[in-house]
């Protein structure tokens, strides 16, 4: 998969932390809008984060932070809708996953050299740390080891699964404070790939999840419990770990409550939604007494609509509400899974290449507004990433021509009446290409007595040419009454002909000669602007707009396209 190097922005709402004494309220009472925090200038994926709960482990000097996070990557149809809702997720407490899956095995021994191991690249996270590594082999002991790729002093230990060749049973990571993090809860998913031009499927260990944390004295300080769901398939057993409870010894716990669903879990869900749906997360003290909780409300949709903070008696403390852009389903998506809400037979919407990104609709289904407990509002506007386009001309194929980065305007409307004249002359305005698209509509005058069999047709020609049929590329059907013409001479001579008389309109559309800019769009979404409003105000307290063009060329993106290893 190709990546884009662009600006990104971490948009963080500061809720504050909940301590287990329960004396402090959670929330944004002192804030009227979401505060824009840290900015990451390299990834191009805006991230919105609402901290929920926090638990400290003093003997290990670590903090367990639970937050609710939003990313527009999650709005892609190619990504699973999470247990929280489209685009949203609760922060992982710790995981190890592959950066890109190229091998079904967790590691493999190089052919002809039994003392060298290789693997995919793995990313890891744990409370307070992260990095990436691959699996290698100690040349002296011949034991598997984790080889850090990113700068890190973490030590990574690997335990092989002796019952499954080239599989890992447990990863253990020791940080610079001597804390040990154990990852032994495993997700098993289907891996599809081509081998000798034949597609085949196999099972892979797709993720390893944190289950225990030990301090430098080897005392267990944090325990994470999971519900293990399995599903039998034709190629083996799928397995998914769903976190149930995080316990910080002597301090308290965070518990996850899911909506009760009938029947066994469906892990390879064809409708693109996590089988689990999160209902609540609950904070308890070391006596297992409920202190605080958050309820997640989607009201029967795929979208998180409300995040409600409740006290121990289920009384509402505060509520966050979420609104989205044009929230609905679409039959077509671009190559990155974002909506193409586009009707090819409607010239008012332009002339776009089939399945190419529609910059006007790509942000549909994404987060638009967060309404805070105080009534303050933060609004987000997203736009597609862009890179400099190497193909600066229009594209023609399948009998149609497309103009992805050109405005298509209605340049003239011929209001004709064949009782008055059959011939009309039209000159195309300057600044347009020599290709026009004509939309035709007419009404017949009533039949004259004695002529009932005369055909009720009025046809037309432009410069003695009947034009080319314009096809809907999705189903190869003709767009009613739309033809296109190559124009070589002006003024245009438009002739209407038929045995009967009538009247109507011939609307002429043409693409401009000048492109909108020099860019190609797609590759996911980036932040375009943010607005913050105080309670009850329609005037933004702050407005931030982000530009991504080259400094000395406002028509060309600064975005870069990297190879699969970039």
In percent, how helical is the residue content?
under 10%
- By helix and strand content, what is the structural category? mainly beta
Query: Taking all residues together, what is the mean pLDDT?
Result: 85
Low-confidence parts, pLDDT < 50 over ≥5 residues?
A: 1-39
Q: What is the CA-atom radius of gyration, in angstroms?
A: 30 Å
**N→C terminal distance:** 9 Å
Cα shape? elongated
Could you give the count of β-strands? Answer: 40
Count of helical stretches: 0
Q: In this structure, how is the largest beta sheet organized?
A: 19 strands, antiparallel
Oligomer: single chain
Percent of residues in β-strands: over 45%
Provide an overview of this structure:
The chain is mainly beta and 566 residues long. Among the domains are: 3-64, no CATH class; 92-249, no CATH class; 407-511, no CATH class. Helix content is 0%, strand content 50%. It contains no helices and 40 strands. The chain has strands at residues 3-5, 10-12, 35-36, 47-57, 62-71, 88-90, 95-98, 108-109, 117-118, 122-126, 129-137, 144-148, 155-160, 168-174, 180-195, 198-214, 220-233, 236-248, 252-258, 278-285, 290-297, 306-311, 316-324, 367-371, 377-388, 395-397, 400-402, 408-417, 423-426, 435-444, 459-462, 468-472, 477-486, 492-497, 502-511, 519-533, 542-545, 549-550, 553-557, 560-562. The strands form eight sheets. The chain has a 19-stranded antiparallel beta sheet that branches. Strands 3-2-4-5-6 form a five-stranded mixed beta sheet, with no helix packed on it. The radius of gyration is 30 Å and the shape is elongated.
């Amino acid at each position: 998969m190709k990546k884009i190097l662009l600006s990104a922005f971490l948009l963080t709402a500061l809720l504050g932390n909940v301590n287990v004494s329960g004396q402090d309220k959670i929330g944004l009472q002192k804030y009227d809008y979401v505060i824009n925090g840290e900015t990451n200038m390299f990834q191009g994926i805006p991230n919105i984060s609402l901290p929920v709960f926090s638990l400290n482990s003093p003997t290990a000097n670590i903090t367990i932070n639970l937050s609710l996070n939003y990313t527009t990557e999650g709005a892609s149809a190619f990504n699973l809708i999470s247990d929280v809702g489209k685009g949203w997720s609760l922060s992982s407490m710790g995981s190890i996953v592959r950066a890109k899956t190229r091998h079904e095995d967790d590691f493999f021994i190089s052919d002809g050299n039994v003392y060298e191991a290789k693997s995919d690249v793995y990313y890891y996270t744990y409370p307070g740390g992260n990095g990436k590594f691959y699996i290698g082999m100690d040349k002296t002991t011949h034991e598997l080891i984790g080889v850090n790729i990113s700068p890190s002093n973490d030590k990574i230990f690997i335990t092989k699964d002796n019952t499954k060749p080239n599989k890992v049973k447990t990863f253990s990571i020791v940080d610079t404070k001597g804390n040990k993090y154990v990852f032994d809860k495993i997700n098993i998913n289907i891996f599809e790939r081509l081998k000798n031009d034949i597609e085949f499927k196999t099972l892979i260990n797709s993720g390893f999840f944190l289950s225990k944390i030990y301090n430098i004295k080897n005392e267990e300080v944090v325990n994470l419990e999971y519900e293990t769901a399995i599903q039998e398939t034709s190629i083996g057993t799928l397995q998914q770990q769903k976190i149930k409870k995080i316990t910080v010894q002597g301090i308290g716990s965070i518990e996850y409550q899911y909506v009760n669903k009938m029947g066994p879990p469906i892990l390879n869900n064809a409708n693109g939604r996590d089988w689990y749906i999160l209902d609540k997360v609950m904070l308890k003290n070391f006596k297992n007494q409920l202190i605080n909780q958050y309820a997640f409300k989607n009201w029967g949709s795929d979208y998180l609509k409300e995040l409600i903070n409740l006290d121990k008696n289920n009384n509402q403390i505060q509520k966050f509400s979420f609104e989205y852009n044009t929230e609905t389903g679409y039959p077509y998506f671009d190559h990155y899974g974002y909506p193409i809400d586009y009707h090819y037979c409607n010239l008012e919407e332009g002339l776009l290449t089939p399945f190419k990104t529609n910059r006007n609709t790509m942000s549909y289904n994404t987060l638009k507004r967060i309404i805070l407990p105080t009534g303050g509002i933060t609004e987000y506007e997203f736009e597609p990433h862009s890179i400099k386009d190497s193909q600066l001309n229009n594209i023609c194929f399948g009998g149609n021509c497309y103009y992805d980065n050109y405005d298509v305007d209605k340049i003239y409307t011929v209001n004709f009446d064949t009782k008055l004249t059959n011939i009309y002359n039209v000159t195309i305005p300057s600044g347009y290409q020599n290709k026009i698209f004509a939309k035709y509509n007419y009404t017949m005058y009533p039949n004259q007595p004695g002529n009932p069999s005369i055909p009720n047709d009025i046809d037309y020609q432009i410069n003695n040419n009947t034009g080319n049929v314009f096809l809907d590329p999705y189903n190869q059907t003709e767009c009613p009454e739309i033809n296109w013409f190559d124009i070589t001479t002006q003024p245009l001579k438009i002739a209407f002909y038929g045995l009967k008389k009538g009247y109507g309109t011939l609307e002429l559309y043409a693409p401009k000669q000048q492109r909108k800019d020099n860019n190609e769009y797609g590759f996911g979404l980036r932040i375009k602007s943010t607005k913050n409003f105080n309670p009850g105000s329609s005037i933004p307290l702050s407005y931030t707009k982000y530009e991504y063009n080259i400094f000395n060329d406002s028509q060309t993106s600064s975005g870069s396209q990297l190879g699969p290893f970039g």
